[in-house]
Amino acid sequence: MNKFDRVISTLILLQTKKILKASSISERFGISLRTVYRDISTLKNAGIPIIGDPGVGYSIMDGYRLPPIMFNEEEALALLTAEKFIGDITDETTQSSYSGAMMKIKAILRSTDKQSLEVLEDSIAFSHFKWWENKSYLQDLFKSIAAKKIIKIEYQKADKSISNRLLEPIGCYYQYSNWYLVAYCQNRQAYRTFKINRILQLRALDQQFDAEHISLQMYIDQQTKAWKEQQQFQKVEVAFNRSVLQHAENRKYYFGFVEQVEEKEVVRMKFLNSSMEIVARWLLQFGNQATVLAPQALQSRIKELATELYEHYQ
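RE: above sequence
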């Protein structure tokens, strides 16, 4: 990125944050702190009312705004792709809000860029069958998180029992086709994860919370680490015939794939997995086109499952 583009991008970045540290700018553009200070000085000399100092952070004086930003074609196409993706993974309220924002963006595009979007709008799609629709709570949750508002929910657990909770919401994340809420539960006096589709009722209270909670990413990292420590992973090695290689590769990462070695007639794959039962049931579908090389216990379990299947149909 040349200096002009970098300085303009820095100005745009400053408008997205209340306070932006020089280290964040340095990391974003892969430049030294000294270069950051020079770029900030360039903006100040151009009349941009930037306040702050090195080591503290920078911000633009309240009331100053740039005129509407013109998006280039690549940025506009990226936003269009995001619109299609958001329509697939979020609720109707969020989809509607994003579509409204996209209409405003399209309004300021150049004619040639508008034409490109019109052509591509019907040429980009996500083919994904939805087993369920996400409930329309995302916008309410996002607003509560931003305003640090306490929320009250009626929640249905996996066993169908229902409980009422007072929560201090921290963040939401999307995983395996579902949205999850991470919050500090006042009832349990601990952090908890809630599947948003199990929330039966949600109400944001007028009351705010003052506590400084753990960040969402830190919570997820801690949960992942704790889960890994509880697992007893075993090494698994399987030789797949090339006739089924494509099917094996499509799912290998779900079973703790580590590496694979290409050989003349087969491909050997290594895995780390804590459940030999799950791996055995996955490998059973490949029949004699997959051979377990290790461990012996996995070989034995596949034999048992094959025998059970044979006897079932006898």
